[in-house]
Each structure stands twice: as structure tokens, then as C-alpha cells.
Specification:
With about 80 residues, the chain is mainly alpha-helical. The chain has one domain. The protein is built from 3 helices and 2 strands; from the N terminus they run ββααα. Strand 1 and strand 2 form a beta hairpin. Helix 1 packs across helix 3. The relative contact order is 0.12.
Length: about 80
């Protein structure tokens, strides 16, 4: 029988430190997007069913785009 699992172990990211790195990357992307569209949260159903709004320009790195895609995939899993 295996011994106890350390609190710092994360089943998906291997360690708590890795999971924190992913969290920080997602938070950074959220902040960057928030600076462009405003940080005021809006009801997502109203956003999706409402007007598209004005076009915005935002430059993202490949890393930021991959982090955002990861986060969006996770959001889809939760619906």
C-alpha cells in the first residue's frame, strides 16, 4: 500500500508549485484582457446574447494565447 500523498502534490500539474504557476499565468491573462475591456464583470448570458460591442485591439504573446485557450477549454468542460 502506498504511503500518504504530500499536500504539495497536484494530480494534474505534478506539484502545487506548477499549479500555482498555471494560476498566475491565467490571472495575468485575465488582467491583460481586463485592461482592454474593463474589469467590471458582466453576466455572461447577457454578453453572449447582446450586441457585439466595439472592436478592440489587444496584442498577446503565443504563451498568453495558449494560456487563454487552456482556460477556455476548462470553461467548456464546466458547462
Amino acid at each position: 500500500m502506498p504511503g500518504p500523498v504530500s499536500d504539495s502534490y497536484d494530480p494534474e500539474f505534478s506539484t502545487d508549485s506548477n499549479a500555482n504557476d498555471v494560476r498566475k499565468a491565467i490571472e495575468g491573462a485575465v488582467q491583460k484582457v481586463g485592461k482592454t475591456i474593463g474589469s467590471e464583470p458582466k453576466d455572461i448570458v447577457e454578453v453572449v446574447q447582446g450586441q457585439k460591442g466595439t472592436a478592440r485591439t489587444l496584442t498577446l504573446t503565443e504563451q498568453e494565447l495558449r494560456v487563454i485557450r487552456f482556460a477556455m477549454s476548462r470553461a467548456l468542460e464546466s458547462i
